[in-house]
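Retro notes, item 3 of 5
We never archived the inputs for the tetrahydrodeoxyuridine complex last cycle. Fixing that now. Sequence and ligand:
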Amino acid sequence: MNHQQYQFEFEVYESADQLNEHDAALLSQAKQATAMAYAPYSHFKVGAVAVLSNGQVITGTNQENASFPVGICAERVLLSNAAIRYPQVPIESLAISYDNTRGDSNHPISPCGICRQSLLEYELRVQKPIRLILGGLSGKIYIVPKASSLLPLSFTGADMQ
Ligand code: THU
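Structure as it came back at the time:
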């Protein structure tokens, strides 16, 4: 028996003022995108905006449904949108923000488990890590250099060969 360790590094910024201008602009767009969310059940509006390596910008927001499990997270709406509009073009950075209209929006949120699996597949599909910029409407910002680092010991297509 031996012990193994998994580690990953991410950056923590005290506020959006400390970001470089590109990251600050992308996060600001993600904050604005929360207004386009369809979240009449959770009242938790998520906005995701990505810049691709061809310079194009793609947006996603959460889309809920009266049948709750049918709802889709902002991240997966964005990935589907990117895959259709610019197939095989890598995502450079993806900013995720939220407006919790019945609570606080003052700390970063991380993608849910299903979205982590989808982000991993996208990285493998286009062979490029996705850099995440995570922040609420205010408060700290996390920058995670590689989305798939949020999903250690992951299951991928390689396991099925
Ligand atoms: N949600 C997202 O869109 N992305 C996340 O990273 C976390 C959760 C959505 C799903 C649901 O519509 C609402 O937020 C509350 O869970």
